[in-house]
Amino acid sequence: MSDDHLTHLDDAGRARMIDVGAKPITHRVAVAGGRLQTTAEVIALVRADGLPKADVLATARIAGIAGAKKTNELIPLAHLLPLDGVTVDFDLGTDSIEIRASVSVTARTGVEMEALTAVALAGLTLHDMIKAVDPAAVLGDIKLISKSGGKRGNWHRDASVVEPFETTPSSTPHRGRAVVIVSSTGAAGGSRNDTTGPLIVDWLVGHGFTPDPVTVTPDAAIATAIQAALSTQPAVLLTTGGTGIHPQDRTPEATRAVLD
To answer: Residues 78, 139, 84, 188: what is their CA dihedral angle, to the nearest 10 degrees?
Structure first.
């Protein structure tokens, strides 16, 4: 955009922490990703929980969440934000681990750096956990995937376009709180990465809803997750997944039970 400028620099070119006090408070979500390139041997050990340092994915997930919460301490000009939610997921490939973090906040500034920091800290922790087996592992391809909220609206890396939806607090009517439930045994267990939940959250934000952090549940627990979500009385509840032919794929049945 022609009017873009580096807001973290003052007129003399000195670094500053920008004043966001006049910005409207909006719900903002940022999704970032990265990759740890390693070996097939390491991936097999991670799947079997056979590395010298056990609980690899669980430890890396906690590190990523902690990194998002401490971003203002690590990035000098980042603001301290009251995060609404942080999720960190992993997808095990043949010789790599894909990392994905989603961070949400209701505030005057975005959480892109928090999402990127979550990916970086999770990846560094993975590196630490596997270095005894593969010291040559490479952490890279850390990037912002999407963001929503604020005056610049929705941005997706694949589309490389901005879809503005909110320039003032009242330009998009607020339609209430939303809940998104992803029914996926693999994603709940950390063996695959959920990509649909964050996309649904972006869509909801763009249409005036305030989504809770995405709930990822095993297929067999979808009925319990739906009941728990409905007990909080959201304006809308959306589910994705759990609609296959496996006996545990019971989303239609769990949904039908609560319809009126």
So the answer is: 180
Catalytic residue positions, numbered = 128
**CA distance linking residue 256 with residue 259, whole number of Å:** 5
3-class DSSP state of 88: strand
Average pLDDT over residues 174-189: 86
Burial class (CB in 10 A: 0-12, 13-18, 19+), 228: middle
Question: Would you place residue 2 in the very low, low, confident or very high pLDDT band (cuts 50, 70, 90)?
Answer: very low
Q: By the 8 A CB rule, do 214 and 184 touch?
A: no
Q: What is the dihedral of CA 37, 40, 42, 45, to 10 degrees?
A: 140
| Cβ pair 62, 87 in contact under 8 A | no
In sign, the C-alpha dihedral spanning 138, 127, 94, 182 is: negative
Residue burial 61-75, b: 16+ Cβ < 10 Å; e: rest: bebbbbbbbebbeee
